[in-house]
UniProtKB/TrEMBL annotation:
Domain EAL: 23-275
Phylogenetic classification of the source organism: Bacteria, Pseudomonadati, Pseudomonadota, Betaproteobacteria, Rhodocyclales
Domain of life, source organism: Bacteria
Protein name: Two-component system response regulator
Organism from which the protein derives: Parazoarcus communis
Entire-sequence positions represented here: 492 to 768 of 774
């Protein structure tokens, strides 16, 4: 590789090696972070057309002792290259169920969605994990929503369908995240036990002004209505977004306009206090 390649090849190899080393170091630090309890669960509210909170999404944060709060974009891709994502998702699932249980105990139940990486979903023990989690946390299973992406569907479809049906039969709900950005097929929508579609924020951003995006949102909404599936619009940032979306009955909204992701424990505590007054 060093034959007459000039500086460029050498530089390329060095940068590859550097990147590989950085990934390795990040993966090691993340492993330690999981063990040393540096992950944090944040919650972002989901509201209905009248602004009432009807759910929340769990989003992971890494509270790094030196660097402060790190966003998932920086470590989820690295975690997904290894089995670390499984440990991370499991931690988030367990914490989510604890929060669901706490709200349920206080007669203030709320459905919470958790992101499930394809790698975790296809693991042999996934179904048993969910079963055990439901038993140990004693939550109403319908308060737990698992968010999967369309990328899961390009795998062994029969296997995915079977697993989703088993978990769905336990009462747990499924949501298709970032809907419309990946491999979308009406055929799989019909085959799978899906309760919700999340319309990707890239369609919401310009929808109030862009006729094509508006049409797309309307199309997804009508498909969901026909299939009796709920819909959530992601990335609702402005009044214009929100007003546009209230034209669609039943469409749930999630975005900075209604609330940024906040530390989950404090958010639940505040919600329980408000429910008592
Ligand atoms: P996602 O599942 O699509 O989550 C929505 C992302 O949009 C979140 O970014 C959220 O903070 C952000 N967001 C919310 N409202 C708005 C808005 O109004 N405008 C804009 N521009 N963004 C908004 P976040 O928390 O940085 O997470 C990024 C991605 O990382 C997530 O995208 C998800 O794919 C992944 N992720 C986060 N937590 C977990 C986890 O526990 N497990 C797994 N496997 N993936 C996770
Ligand atoms: Ca999500
Ligand atoms: Ca999403
Ligand atoms: Ca996304």
């Amino acid at each position: 590789a060093m034959l007459d390649g000039g500086n460029r090849v050498v530089f390329f190899e060095e940068s590859m090696a550097r990147q590989a080393r950085q990934h390795f170091e990040l993966a090691q630090a993340l492993q330690a972070a999981i063990e040393q309890n540096q992950l944090r669960l944040y919650l972002q509210p989901q509201v209905n057309g009248s602004g009432v909170v009807v759910g929340a999404e769990s989003l992971v944060r890494w509270e790094h002792p030196q660097r402060g709060l790190i966003l998932p974009a920086e470590f989820i891709p690295v975690a997904e290259e290894s089995r670390l994502i499984v440990a991370l998702d499991r931690w988030m699932l367990r914490r989510t169920c604890e929060l669901i249980a706490e709200m349920q105990r206080n007669a203030c139940p709320l459905r919470i969605s958790v992101n499930i990486s394809p790698r975790h979903f296809i693991e042999a023990g996934f179904v048993d994990d969910i079963q055990r989690l439901l038993e140990s946390s004693a939550i109403n299973p319908s308060l737990l929503m698992l968010e999967v992406t369309e990328s899961l569907m390009i795998r062994n479809m029969d296997d995915v369908v079977a697993k989703m049906k088993t978990i769905s039969a336990m009462g747990v709900c499924f949501s298709i995240d970032d809907f419309g950005t990946g491999y979308s097929s009406l055929a799989y929508l019909k085959r799978l036990p899906i309760h919700e579609l999340k319309i990707d924020q890239s369609f919401i951003r310009d929808a109030p002004a862009d006729a094509n995006d508006a049409l797309l949102v309307a199309m997804i909404q009508s498909i969901a209505t026909i299939l009796n599936i709920e819909t959530v619009a992601e990335g609702v940032e402005t009044r214009e977004h929100s007003e546009f979306l209230t034209r669609f009955p039943g469409l749930i909204q999630q975005g900075y306009l209604h609330g940024r992701p906040q530390p989950g424990t404090a958010w639940v505590k505040k919600r329980l206090e408000q429910s008592r007054t």
